[in-house]
Design brief:
Layout: H1 15-20, H2 35-51, E1 60-64, H3 68-76, E2 82-86
Parallel strand pairs: 1-2
């Protein structure tokens, strides 16, 4: 889940802080795909994880989507965890 791009098309990212914290920036141009195509891609990725063809990442903290704002505040305050938002509590 990501906010929409700024009107001028230029995203501001604190790259020095990202680098020093060992962060990774991953982006997907979701504007190129409708929800059906995106769901199919995610299902394919899920199958690869389930089969063991792709290793499951470790150190991921699952959070319900309704905690997204609090989670982003934690990250802004220096948290080093990697988070994934879910539609249910895990």
């Amino acid at each position: 889940m990501a906010p929409p791009a700024p009107a001028d098309g230029h995203e501001r990212v604190p790259v020095l802080d990202l680098y020093r914290r060992g962060g990774t920036l991953v982006g997907v141009n979701s504007a190129r795909h409708d929800t059906i195509a995106s769901a199919a891609s995610l299902n394919s990725l899920g199958e690869l994880f389930d089969s063991g063809a792709l290793p499951v990442p470790t150190g991921i903290v699952a959070r319900p989507l309704d905690q997204a704002v609090a989670t982003y505040r934690e990250l802004a305050a220096g948290a080093n965890d990697k988070f994934v938002f879910t539609d249910t509590e895990h």
